[in-house]
Amino acid sequence: MSDAKTGAGLPVVLLHALPLDSAMWDGPARALRARGHRVLPIDQRGFGGTPLPADAAPSLDLVADDLARALDRRGLGSALVAGCSMGGYTAMSFLRRHPHRVRALALFAARSAADTPKQAAARLRFADLITDDSLRAGIVADTTPSLLGATTRARRPRLLDRVTALARAADPRSVAWAQRAIAARGDSLAALSATDVPAVVVRGEEDELVSPDEARESAAALPHGRLVTLPGVGHLAPLEAPGKTVEILTALLAAAQAARPTGATAC
């Protein structure tokens, strides 16, 4: 897991999408650090520099507990937790298991409901196929474009090439493990409804994987949440719209600091 950089105020945890790693947050992380914030980009199990334990059954709860230990090692009690896609699902697992450690929540391109049986079956089939050496290249080529919006694909082909290269480089065992963990996740609506922290749900207007209704449902469940829709953006706002992502997180940090100034303690 990447280390936090020196900075004042509330730390910012950044959780990446599947099949990428914490480098997808490099642009927003640099900008937030330049504004004086402490930033902790996380490589989740099996991605970046974090190993995938051979004997662990797929579960996002394990990944959430990894994050709790990462904060403990750095002496950090709580943070703004931001996650994109798989990172959003990890953020919601973290909220369920460690609610007192979430001071603010940002969910990018993540639905709060559990998978339907059809959705879960599709993930499990993907997990089986991605580990087949004869099929992997075709699967990556077929599925990766849907991670980016149509505008991004048309106007920024180099970003599509970059994301495709990262998808090809991801360990297929880790991708399969993560897909199975996502398929097994529970519904998070109750956890969202129970939290009183400032929160934002972000959806790209061209996201082909999370629908407007799903984004609205998540935002409506949050007592202090709001929905932000980004025009011309698909599933990966931190890569497609890093400037807007920084604006959203900066505003959320300000709301969290106003709600509980630095130095205040949680019950």
Automatic annotation (TrEMBL):
Name of the protein this chain belongs to: Alpha/beta fold hydrolase
- What UniProt keywords are attached to this protein's entry? Hydrolase
Domain (AB hydrolase-1) ranges: 11-242
Q: Name one GO molecular function term.
A: hydrolase activity
